[in-house]
């Protein structure tokens, strides 16, 4: 099966997320150089392998993120609970990537980002964003294939980043 | 909660019931808050149940054992939880490439030598190891690197006697068994530093078995030996000098044994207390622009090594600014 997604889509959701936060972080993470706080991330890709999963209503823990898959008629809703909106773009792209992944599997889905602290939700639909996701995938693959990590660039994000000491020592 | 090392000096039993770890000794049985434990150092005669080892493995807590004399015996190094195939390959590459290996080996020694020099300055002596450092730059073999290091160390120890109290002259650095008090102190602390570095390496993706200055296999965790070049002077030597010069450690804290001069139980207790306090002391880190503990400096050194290996930044050994 050519379209078997695990053969084509080797990028993990967290990696797409990190791509939009910081390429240096993405590189380290993708090489297994994780920081204490990050070591518990569960790989969504691995998780999606268990096809039997679909159709059930279940809660999945991905690090500090919870994903619920809820099947409603013909559409599946991918729920993600996020803490805040400071990394909104990264969250959206991660959700879009999941939808893209599911689409390749032949599953139509939409995603809901939940911001319980802000009492907000945001619906994410893949339609029209496919190219953007593909670009992100290519870019993530390019960064992962670099022999050395991209040089860190100091930004506001660094302060809260688990990689701070590694990057800046 | 900041996880801290747990040192067990007394004899007893380490056991587990459900999700609690207990240490039982002559004083009674007390639960240990496992979430707050970073690693464990065992100096007493301690019986450990396999359940407690399973539990510690699960929590990723390394346990280090020291023998009757206070020297490192070995570690319970739980199955590694942090792995990076990519980094492991790079670590090995830097070992196999002669130039790359030599470069790192020299850097460890440079760091060690500069820290020794720094100590002597702190203790009011005018000594320069520049000649040695120049020589080091030119050598082309690991054995020669080692040789320069050994000669610096000799000169370094020889100058200690200028400031040490009469009872505690070092005369010459004897290893095992230590023939005098100062040697006993240094060896005891160096053992502890080595184990502490092993713990820090456990919490990174670096493999502790691939080293550059020391030959892998010289000891199981030979990378910890490499890194201890940097930390022995700034931790062990400083504590040793302080304890002796301030009269905190006295002749009475040692005993004579067939195996040479050794710390007695009271002495071990004092030294370990000083060590633990020292490791929790903070210094302002000039690059990170924040306070970090001395213990954290070891981890940061590991990070610098990772960056060297993956090719972002050349390793620049820690030279004490404090
Ligand atoms: S500390 Fe800054 S540069 Fe480094 S990984 Fe984090 S965000 Fe990126």
Automatic annotation (TrEMBL), chain B:
CDD domains in UniProt: Cas1_I-B (cd09722)
Purpose of the protein: CRISPR (clustered regularly interspaced short palindromic repeat), is an adaptive immune system that provides protection against mobile genetic elements (viruses, transposable elements and conjugative plasmids). CRISPR clusters contain spacers, sequences complementary to antecedent mobile elements, and target invading nucleic acids. CRISPR clusters are transcribed and processed into CRISPR RNA (crRNA). Acts as a dsDNA endonuclease. Involved in the integration of spacer DNA into the CRISPR cassette.
Organism the protein comes from: Thermococcus sibiricus (strain DSM 12597 / MM 739)
Top-level taxonomy: Archaea, Methanobacteriati, Methanobacteriota, Thermococci, Thermococcales
Transmembrane region(s): none
Protein name: CRISPR-associated endonuclease Cas1
Family note: Belongs to the CRISPR-associated endonuclease Cas1 family.
First-tier enzyme category under EC: hydrolase
Annotated PANTHER family: CRISPR-ASSOCIATED ENDONUCLEASE CAS1 (PTHR43219)
Enzyme Commission (EC) number: 3.1.-.-
One matching Pfam family: Cas_Cas1
Cofactor: Mg(2+); Mn(2+)
GO molecular function, one term: DNA endonuclease activity
Residues given in the record as Mn(2+) binding sites: 149, 214, 229
Keyword annotations from UniProtKB, A to Z: Antiviral defense, DNA-binding, Endonuclease, Hydrolase, Magnesium, Manganese, Metal-binding, Nuclease
GO biological process: defense response to virus; maintenance of CRISPR repeat elements
InterPro entries, alphabetized: CRISPR-assoc_Cas1 (IPR002729), CRISPR-assoc_Cas1_C (IPR042206), CRISPR-assoc_Cas1_HMARI/TNEAP (IPR019858), CRISPR-assoc_Cas1_N (IPR042211)
Superkingdom: Archaea
Subunit structure as annotated in this protein's UniProt entry: Homodimer, forms a heterotetramer with a Cas2 homodimer.
